[in-house]
Specification:
By secondary structure, the chain is α/β, with parallel strands linked by helices. Helices cover 50% and strands 19% of the residues. Strand 6, helix 6 (138-149) and strand 7 form a beta-alpha-beta unit. Keywords: Signal. Residues 28-245 form the Solute-binding protein family 3/N-terminal domain. Belongs to the bacterial solute-binding protein SsuA/TauA family.
Length: 327
């Protein structure tokens, strides 16, 4: 039977939509996540990302950003969550990625903690002590920035490169005196330790840090709808939390899902969520421009000064892309 023009158009649109979802469904995406505490962990647990993108997502847990960058550079991972310091190092080393979402502006959720009985009562007491931190992480950047703020030569501090699980083990054995880390390792350190400074406090001294969602440029060019869907789910989760944080926390299901994916203690979830800022869509449009480009440039200059990268790129703007939010 011959279809009238409106029916033909409707059929064509239906076929186009089916074609897109068939293509997305046939797309396997490996997403690297970390054990940070954030509202979007609920969406991850609920399978909301798969529903919105139509893609088959393989979630892989990582302990630090440098390992995520290595996986993205190799092509094993297409989308990843990491801090501004490893991100800056990766962009500077020409890893083909772009930032499509600011996951969080870090506040009290990362901190420098001195172990009770270590003899560290003030910043100057860090001299000669063993301080553990994952190298080239936001914690590492913040530790070096804190030492610079306190006029302490980093070479006079025994800075050890340990992943968060190793930090927890070393802390419990008493092998280290202090650590700059995030949860769940941060929570373990706080049990018998004293916070010397947080990343939120360091931001006021001119050393802000943030976490970001990034994507391989080739994957984003081929599957922009998946990246847009991924961003929307994240922002919807943030909006749900920020609409009424107390009501969100009162829902035990939300807390349980965050605990399961982060490893943090239930009692710590409220404080950790309050320790960061989760930018909404309108904020993202502003942040994914000059502010992020400047933050990356400043971080690169600091990393070069510390000998962590060889040079600073003339422009970091090509690695920041707000189009997945604005479209």
């Amino acid at each position: 039977m011959k279809l009238h023009s409106p029916l033909r158009l409707l059929a064509a649109l239906s076929l186009a939509g089916a074609s897109f979802f068939a293509q997305a469904a046939s797309t396997d995406v490996t997403v690297a996540y970390q054990t940070t505490v954030d509202p979007a962990k609920v969406a991850q647990a609920d399978g909301a990302y798969e529903k919105a993108t139509g893609a088959k997502i393989n979630w892989r847990k990582f302990d630090n950003g440098s390992d995520i960058i290595a996986a993205i550079a190799s092509g094993d991972v297409q989308i990843g969550y990491l801090g501004s310091s490893p991100l800056t190092a990766a962009i500077t080393r020409k890893v083909p990625v772009e930032t499509f979402l600011i996951a969080t502006q870090i506040g009290g959720a990362e901190a420098l903690v001195a172990r009770d009985g270590s003899g560290i009562n003030s910043p100057q007491d860090l001299i000669g002590k063993k301080v553990a931190v994952p190298f080239v992480s936001t914690g590492h950047y913040s530790l070096l920035a804190a030492l610079k703020h306190w006029n302490i030569d980093p070479s006079k501090v025994q800075i050890l490169n340990l992943a968060p699980p190793a930090i927890v083990a070393a802390w419990k054995r008493g092998d280290i005196d202090a650590t700059y880390v995030w949860d769940p390792a941060l929570g373990a350190a706080k049990e018998n330790g004293k916070v010397l400074i947080t990343s939120g406090e360091l931001a006021k001294f001119g050393a802000p840090t943030f976490d970001a969602w990034i994507v391989r440029k080739d994957f984003a060019a081929k599957h922009p709808e998946i990246v847009k869907g991924f961003a929307k789910v994240t922002l919807d989760a943030y909006a749900d939390y920020r609409k009424d944080p107390q009501a969100w926390l009162a829902n035990q299901s939300n807390v349980d899902k965050v605990v399961k994916l982060s490893g943090a203690k239930p009692a710590d979830i409220p404080v950790l969520l309050q320790g960061n800022v989760y930018p909404l869509a309108a904020d993202q449009v502003v942040l994914l421009g000059a502010p992020t480009t400047k933050a990356l440039t400043d971080t690169a200059a600091f990393l070069k000064e510390q000998g962590k990268v060889d040079a600073v790129l003339p422009d970091y703007a090509p690695s920041v892309n707000a189009s997945f939010i604005t479209q």
